[in-house]
Amino acid sequence: MRINHNLSALNSWRQLTLTNNDMQKTLERLSSGLKINRASDDAAGLAISEKMRGQVRGLDMASKNAQDAISLIQTAEGALSEVHSILQRMRELSVQAATETNTDVDRSNIQSEIDQLRDEIDRISRATEFNTKKLLNGNLEGFRADADVKVVAEGNIDLSATVSSNASEGTLIIEIGQFTGTTTSQIDARVVLIKTGGISETIVTYSLGSAEIGGVKLSWNTTRFDIDQFGGALPKEAVIDSAVARIESVNTSGNQLIFQIGANEGANMIAGIDAIDSKNLGLTTATLKVTSQDSAERTISVIDAAVHKISSIRSQLGAIQNRLEHTIANLGVASENLTAAESRIRDADMSQEMMQFTKQQILMQSGMSMIAQANALPQNVLQLLRG
């Protein structure tokens, strides 16, 4: 028996300290409801959980974005519905003016109402907006692109021509065959004439094709390209630096609606809305005349075309809204499942934690009791000394 070092008490104290630390962590999990409160609790689990949290929050925000997009679409569609009603009224008035039972005064009065209705269409086109963004004035039309093009080919081509001695000028025309974004063009010289002081070089393309570069759809047809690489006279053997047309730069104009409907980069939806002012609908002062029977008949056809265009735009917006509604439903399912996965990693199981806490309470009480017993053991040495 030793009295300088009470090993039993030291062991009991160490176990009691470990139990106390475990109890503190259990209390922290019970109070926060989280299994991971700091990186040391589960380093890998924390990293995975944080990534999932970012995705969940992104999905939830994307769902809100889609809901906002639906509100925007509904705003535009509501205005278009009113334009439809106006056009139907204008058509009704045109039909009324087309009958010969009306006098010139009657038709003049009808014309006045039609003019007012046309002005209201223009006002709707200018004033319809969502969050200060104009919707129907043409700002959201799909853009058109102007591109600078280089023609690049490998190898040499030989050009030759027989010209009479009295020819004073002429033109060299080279035709490029049909090509697409991945197909090499064939070049044929059709007409070769000499111009005084040099040669005028022109390439005429009768091509129809399209390509997609960086997500931008490009199309072309019957476009003229001027060669500016040559100066002076064209040699008999000329080297063409290219054989395939490629886009060097794109200058865009206009704007589009881009809805971010996903949690990650590039998860977006692009839409455009055409302008619906009277000019774009073909409802000009010249076409909306009902001052005679013949002009009233023609106006009916003009209004029918405008009705068809508005119907087409509304149909497109309706399709976009339906897509967005399905997007919202899908985002909700994805967010729910990802939240469940993140919860399994990070959230504490309260029943399991309570079970651990109860066990640790018992261990604390027994540990303190054992320390008391271990501290009493050296007292037995006194019995030996008295003996």
What does this structure look like?
With 387 residues, this protein is of the alpha+beta class. It has 3 domains: 1-33 and 355-387; 53-138 and 272-339, f41 fragment of flagellin, N-terminal domain, CATH 1.20.1330; 144-253, no CATH class. The protein contains 6 helices and 14 strands. The strands form 6 sheets. It has a 4-stranded mixed β-sheet with strand order 6-5-7-10, with no helix packed on it. It has a two-stranded antiparallel sheet with strand order 1-2. Helix 1 (7-32) packs antiparallel against helix 5. The protein is rod-shaped. The two termini are 15 Å apart.
Which sequence of SSEs, written as H and E, runs from N to C?
HHHEEEEEEEEEEEEEEHHH
Q: Given the helix and strand composition, which structural class is it?
A: alpha+beta
CATH-defined fold name of the largest domain? f41 fragment of flagellin, N-terminal domain
- Hey, roughly how much beta strand do the residues contain? 15-25%
CATH architecture of the largest domain: Up-down Bundle
Shape: rod-shaped
List keywords for this structure.
387 residues, alpha+beta, 4-stranded mixed β-sheet, two-stranded antiparallel sheet
List the helices and strands and how they pair.
Layout: H1 7-32, H2 43-97, H3 104-127, E1 129-130, E2 133-134, E3 144-152, E4 156-158, E5 172-176, E6 187-192, E7 201-205, E8 208-213, E9 216-221, E10 224-226, E11 237-239, E12 244-253, E13 257-260, E14 268-271, H4 293-346, H5 350-376, H6 380-386
Parallel strand pairs: 5-7
Antiparallel strand pairs: 1-2, 3-12, 4-11, 5-6, 7-10, 8-9, 13-14
